[in-house]
Amino acid sequence: MSSSVPLLSDMRRSSSFVVTNRQLRRxxxxxxxxILVAVLVxxxxxxxxTSGNDVSTSPPLSPSQQQELILQQQIARESSSHAxxxxxxxxxxxxxxxxxxxxxxxxxxxxSDTADTFARFANKHACAVSSLEVHRPFxxxxxxxxxxxxxxxxxxxxxxDAPYMPRGCDMRWYxxxxxxxxxxxxxxxxxxxxxxxRHAVGALHVLMREDLGFGAVTQWNFRVDEKQxxxxxxxxxxxxxxxxxxxxxxxxxxxxxxxLKCDARTINxxxxxxxxxxxxxxxxxxxxxxxxxxxxxxxxxxxxxxSGKPVALVYSQGHHNDLDVQATAGWLTSIERTISEAxxxxxxxxxxFVTPGSAGPNMIDQDAIKHGxxxxxxxxxxxxxxxxxxxxxxxxGTWNATxxxxxxxxxxxxxxxxxxxxxxILNWLDRAEPAPSILAASGFKxxxxxxxxxxxxxxxxxxxxxxxxxxxxxxxxxARAAAASGGGGPAQAEAKSPVTxxxxxxxxxxxxxxxxxx
Length: 518
Fold this sequence. Notes:
Number of helices: 18
Strand content: 5-15%
Radius of gyration: 31 Å
Structural class: mainly alpha
CATH topology of the domain at 145-431: Rossmann fold
Order of helices and strands: HHHHHHHHEHHHEHEHEHEHHHH
CATH architecture of the domain at 145-431: 3-Layer(aba) Sandwich
Number of strands: 5
Distance between the termini: 95 Å
């Protein structure tokens, strides 16, 4: 082989041609060789692009941009599959029926919806929870509060613990700053009810403390064993960690202020345990004291100007009275009477009743009938009917949203489920329209549920249905009230209004105080 550099034609003709290092340097140093190399580089780039290889030199995507790209790709796949379906209403992937082609939210106003807002939370990796695994965002957002409540109550998921989607229009998934801003609009946000409300308060503090592992509990006074038992999902274990749950934001500000990411001076979140009907006098007294403080703070006292902020009240009740709509009507009546007596009518208020969630396979057998799927659905429908005529109390159904979710004991949600529930409540708070009370302490009218629709069979005389069964908690409560006032027995007790016992009707024996820490 000649020592001179071969021609290009010779390179093409010889399949066994090998270029030595010296020869290659000579080619590269010549202008013609440089042009040849440039042409080869361009050809390689074109081949790479056409084969789908990414040779971009742009900077790496941020985590939020990566999440948005994943969402876009997922929706593109679902949209393609959805277009191929004949009817266009099949379940596709994790999308809700008819929503597979919904566009990905865009713009700064929904930036937190398309990003994992838990990315910087403490114990993020240990708890392995992403906000995008809890809620799947799409367009459009719901326009009005009524549309929002209907969409959240009617939404669902496809597959066990799959991301939740409202029906027809979307809700927001707020970041920490937005959550703090919503709560600070109110003089205080009071969660009144049973363990479902305590868990909602805990989930709210997970967001306000940015801690997935211990945000819902008082980890500052944990024993060694509690650090493991009450971690991540364990925070919502009603057997081992109920006492360690956070009941109000003031405790966090007092004992672990550095963990609270909201300004403690602008938020006031409280959980008031009022579980059964009739409510215990001590429970109502605690609620009345908080409302009186809210009245002084909002209206001002001793010449000082008040905040003028409204009060938000979120209710949940049912399981402790075996999902009896009539009993819950009496429970709400007692709560509203307490409010009307303690809170001046001019103080704005927003009220929401949250129904219990679905039942799971871990529910104990003796509760499966009284607290199972049928009873829960009838209760939710009954509460919607009960409050349909009230413009000042909204209803949020959670049965659909909690189907196919992890229920640790068949009733209570895990970390993901409670984060979804509190985010739904925050969406309502963001749209709430606080107004002065439409009720007055004098001439107070109790809530009365619609008449039950019962099909009477021919072999079942109507007389047998003229009075509720003796085991009804309402009849038992009225009978106790009649006996205390010297009444003449069950007949007179049943003649009284079953949903309007006074606060004095509740005795201390009805109240089971939560256990106290040593």
